Amino acid sequence: MDDSIREAVAPLRRKCLEEQGVGGGDPADLLARWLLLSAPALDTSRDLAVQLLAWSGGAIALARTPSGVVAERWALERRVVEAFQAAVQLGAAAALTPGALVRVTGSRSVFERFMPMARHPRECFWVLGLGARNHVLLEERVAEGTANLCALSPRDVFRPLVAAGAIQAVLVHNHPSGDPTPSAEDLSLTRRLVAAGELVGVGILDHVIVGAATWTSLLDEGLMEVE
Fold first, then answer.
1. pLDDT score recorded for residue 61
2. What are the φ and ψ backbone dihedral angles of 170, each rounded to 5 degrees?
3. Nearest CA to 110 among 190, 205, 43?
4. Half-sphere exposure of 137 (CA within 13 A, CB side)
5. Residue 152: phi, psi to the nearest 5?
6. What is the pLDDT of residue 28?
């Protein structure tokens, strides 16, 4: 979105975000709000919103469709389309930001903390730095990759952990496919990081892979040992 469009839609975005909450509610209702706020004469905004979402394949797909294509096809102002796309993008970012976790009590607590990450279209790798009694000292995303690969080095993982004074860590990443079964690359990376952690004095407690509505804990599965 260029600066002129951003300025044009800023008041519209603020009003809708204040009323609806970033990314909150049904996508059709959110889109209907954008349509009404920008064009009050549209008395069928809800129906139009439903048709738009059905045509594009959903809110995320609509956000990724060129705004000019949407505007021309549906006879809408381009700024309206840009505004809705910005709202969806902001909402997705908010949904993908996990809430606070005070203490790791097991793999379920980690999964519940990072469950929203299952919706991310790319693999993301996070580290939780733990202190005494598994209290969380640090949460940091250290890498983001493609739909099926996330490359990182031990340096990426251990630099923030050492700086935070962590004595243990939990590794977390998502599988956009929804299947949390660890790949050969996941197992190889985990073993390398366990070995590196022994050298720097930060133990790797677990590696949790987040999938759609479920997870895999390498600790629970007995896969954390270095061969």
1. 73
2. -115, 130
3. 205
4. 17
5. -155, 165
6. 60
Backbone angles phi, psi at 153, to 5 degrees: -110, 160
For 26-77, where are the alpha helices, taking DSSP H only? 27-38, 45-56, 59-64, 67-74
Tokens of 122: 């790319």
Hey, is 72 helix, strand or coil?
Answer: helix
Dist. CA 16–CA 214, nearest whole Å: 33
CB-CB contact of 161 with 138 (8 Å): yes
Which amino acid makes up residue 56? S
This prediction has a pTM of 0.59
Model pLDDT for residues 48-74, shown as the tens digit of each residue: 777 777 787 776 677 778 888 988 888
Interatomic CA distance for residues 66 and 89, integer angstroms:
14
Residue 222's region, left for phi above 0, alpha for psi from -120 to 50, else beta, is: left
Tokens 């599965």 correspond to: 221
67 vs 151: CA distance, rounded Å = 33
**Contact by Cβ (8 Å): 161, 194:** no
Q: How far apart are CA 40 and CA 145, in angstroms?
A: 42
Please give the Cα distance from 52 to 80 (Å, whole number).
13
- Pairwise CA distance, residues 135 & 127, whole Å: 13
The predicted model gives 4-22 an average pLDDT of: 43
